[in-house]
Amino acid sequence: MQFEKNYDVLAMGRSSIDLYSNDIGATFSEINSFAAYVGGCPTNISLGARRLGLRVALLTAVGADPVGDFILSFLAKEDVDTRFIPRKSGRRTSAVVLGIEPPDRFPLVYYRDNCADIELTIDDVLAAPIAQSAVLVMTGTGLSREPSRSATLFAGEQARSGGTKVFLDLDFRPDQWHDPRAFGVTVRSVLPLVDVVIGTADEVKAAALKETADISLEHSQVSESRVAGDVGKALKVLLAAGPEAVVMKRGREGTSIHLRCGQTVEAAPFPVQVYNVLGAGDAFASGFLYGHLKGWSWHQAARMGNACGAIVVTRHGCANFMPYEQEVLEFIKERGGF
């Protein structure tokens, strides 16, 4: 553990109130009620990392509204440091509405018009403890629009100059971009500042592809999209830009870590009965960060991430259901260890 820093993890980007269907298996039009949780990729990661015992701060933004109160109250109860979260007057706290139709239908709708977190600024970054954090976690959606795009790039520069490692969760949400191809252009521009990239195969391909004919978006029933292309070539493009590793989440197939040196590390999954896949990737990132900051091997860190993801897919939501450190370690031990 890197104790010379005040924080182990500073996560940056979107936050939201997540409304999860209580009617499991019902189509979206037949849902009668929802449960209110906290969500958003970096917010989920921050909560997951805190429950694993890491020292965590979050840099997002919320509106001056009751939904912002809801998010900040939950984070404070979980002991995530919220002192660096600005409230944006005139902007709304983001929201997401989600259906749950196991095993493979998880439709969701984003409400991010006029949202607060995309208004993060360079001044907000200057007020955040980047140099005092061992790892900065940035996300793709934070790069989707200004002023958050410039703020995120600036945060990466500050981290690199201050000896803070940079993790980029690709977090590809095509409906958050004016042109999905812009996602790849923007991600490639930030990669020289990044140490570790985390994403699915589709996200990796989206980050690398350049030609219109090479990208084919088909919205799936989960919070991601299908992207055409050769994932092997895409990995080479990303690694050539500077990151030490690309960590590729493959769901039921486990995780593969592709290193700049040419080595690939495989980490097997933990088979479970899937209840809800939403949030599994963020739980994985929390566990992977935990292992990385403990000085574990790539394989051990990925297995820790796989275990966290496996636990979360058996539960109703994301942030509110992230596992605790001892719970995950016992889960792994009961299933044969690392």
Structure overview:
The protein has one domain (7-14, 42-61, 120-334): UDP-N-acetylmuramoyl-L-alanine:D-glutamate ligase (3-Layer(aba) Sandwich). 33% of the residues lie in helices and 21% in strands. It is built from 10 helices and 16 strands. The protein has helices at residues 41-51, 66-77, 122-126, 148-161, 180-190, 201-208, 231-240, 280-293, 298-312, 325-334, and strands at residues 7-12, 16-21, 34-39, 56-59, 62-63, 87-88, 94-98, 108-111, 133-139, 165-169, 196-200, 218-219, 225-226, 245-249, 255-259, 264-267. Strands 4-1-9-10-11-14-15-16 form an 8-stranded mixed β-sheet, sandwiched between helices. Strands 3-2-7-8 form a 4-stranded mixed β-sheet. A two-stranded parallel sheet has the order 5-6. Residues 219-223 have low confidence and may be disordered.
CATH class: Alpha Beta
Strand content bin: 15-25%
What's the helix-strand series? EEEHEEHEEEHEHEHEHEEHEEEHHH
Q: Would you tell me the structural class of the helices and strands?
A: alpha/beta
Low-confidence stretches: 219-223
CATH superfamily: Ribokinase
Which second-level CATH architecture applies?
3-Layer(aba) Sandwich
Short description:
The chain is of the alpha/beta class.
